[in-house]
Inverse folding.
């Protein structure tokens, strides 16, 4: 059977594209490999689904690293306000947290999924589950979509919305990259993003569950600065996590060196000069007491002292210059070595994907093959935590659907 458009993948990007297109096209087919749509969406935000962010749309452009330029047209065409209005009109009440994260009021991701499915149903989207697409070809402007069950479907346009490689057990195992590659597209090597890091060092295991506000983490590789990021840090029983680590993990590799400034925005030089003038004035005051002024967890001070073999009960008068400077170094340039990153099985999103230079950012259409479109995480885009990735899925989907309709006109 011949369709106007076939959409491959029933995640948020695929579902949003389908319902938007089907409101204006007669024959829209969505093929999903799982027995139901939105399997990964259901576990988003621990099952609560932070589906967008309520901040100024201009601030979004700081949350996608160097991919923001590609996303700008899509984000402006269908912004976070339109996303919130879409779900509100679909019957989903939402709540905005103090940090501007937006959740369904019920705090249940199934409400977001059901709203998308109802819109697809109302728009008469034809949906076929348990249908894994393993090949797409095109001849004389007609796409042939073949599946693992041996079926073949035909269409004028194809939208690939298969997601990345994170949570492969949910169906996003990188199939979309193979389809894109077969159609002539380059793939930026997929890697885990929005994940934690593992350390081999045992010193900080006792801090598991302890968090520190507004630290700066700097990533170094082969003695070259790669990137830095400011945010909250969380110690885990395996290593480091929290927004500062998770959001900067897109730049990290195993073996990279991290420097953490626990006293940001003060620098090593600031604190070194302060210690030099103040420690001498404190006399018999123990160093563990002196450190209280910086309002960090006591257990962190203890771990840092242990790391440089400094007795926390050493008095300020007894502290040598070498010990003093070593402590300043731990507080402002604390070094860690990444043993490994959390794998695709725990990474929230995938970095890498279909090369953005081969996709038109004003339409989401392939520059290699007319009538072929890409939306959502299958593209080489990844954003910070906080609803930015799902918003990118909705925005690219909306722009894609609008572009297809404009082309038909």
């Amino acid at each position: 059977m011949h369709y106007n458009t076939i959409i491959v993948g029933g995640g948020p990007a695929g579902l949003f594209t389908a319902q938007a297109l089907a409101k204006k096209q007669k024959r829209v087919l969505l093929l999903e490999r799982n027995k139901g749509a939105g399997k990964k969406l259901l576990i988003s935000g621990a099952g609560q689904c932070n589906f967008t962010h309520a901040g100024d749309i201009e601030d979004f452009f700081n949350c996608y690293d160097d991919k923001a330029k590609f996303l700008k047209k899509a984000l402006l065409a269908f912004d976070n306000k339109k996303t919130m209005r879409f779900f509100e009109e679909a019957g989903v009440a939402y709540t905005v947290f103090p940090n501007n994260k937006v959740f369904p009021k019920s705090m249940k991701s199934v409400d977001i999924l059901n709203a998308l499915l109802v819109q697809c149903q109302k728009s008469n989207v034809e949906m076929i589950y348990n249908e894994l697409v393993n090949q797409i070809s095109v001849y004389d402007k007609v796409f042939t979509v073949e599946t693992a069950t041996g079926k073949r479907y035909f269409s004028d346009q194809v939208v690939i919305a298969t997601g990345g490689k994170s949570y492969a057990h949910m169906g996003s195992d990188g199939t979309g990259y193979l389809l894109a590659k077969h159609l002539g597209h380059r793939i930026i090597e997929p890697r885990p993003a929005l994940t934690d890091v593992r350390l081999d060092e045992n010193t900080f295991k006792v801090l598991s569950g302890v968090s520190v506000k507004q630290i700066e983490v700097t990533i170094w590789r082969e003695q070259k600065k790669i990137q830095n990021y400011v945010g909250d840090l969380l110690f885990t029983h395996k290593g480091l996590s929290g927004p500062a680590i998770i959001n900067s993990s897109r730049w990290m590799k195993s073996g990279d060196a991290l420097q953490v400034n626990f006293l940001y925005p003060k620098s090593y030089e600031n604190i070194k000069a302060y210690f030099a003038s103040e420690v001498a004035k404190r006399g018999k005051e123990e160093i563990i007491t002196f450190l209280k002024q910086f309002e960090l967890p006591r257990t962190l001070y203890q771990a840092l002292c242990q790391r440089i073999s400094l007795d926390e009960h050493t008095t300020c008068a007894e502290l040598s210059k070498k010990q003093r400077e070593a402590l300043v170094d731990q507080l402002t340039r604390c070094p860690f070595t990444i043993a490994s990153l959390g794998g695709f099985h725990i990474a929230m999103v995938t970095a890498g994907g279909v090369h953005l230079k081969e996709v038109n950012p004003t339409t989401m259409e392939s520059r290699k093959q007319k009538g072929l479109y890409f939306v959502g995480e299958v593209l080489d885009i990844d954003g910070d935590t906080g609803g930015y990735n799902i918003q990118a899925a909705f925005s690219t989907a909306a722009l894609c659907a609008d572009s297809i309709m404009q082309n038909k006109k």
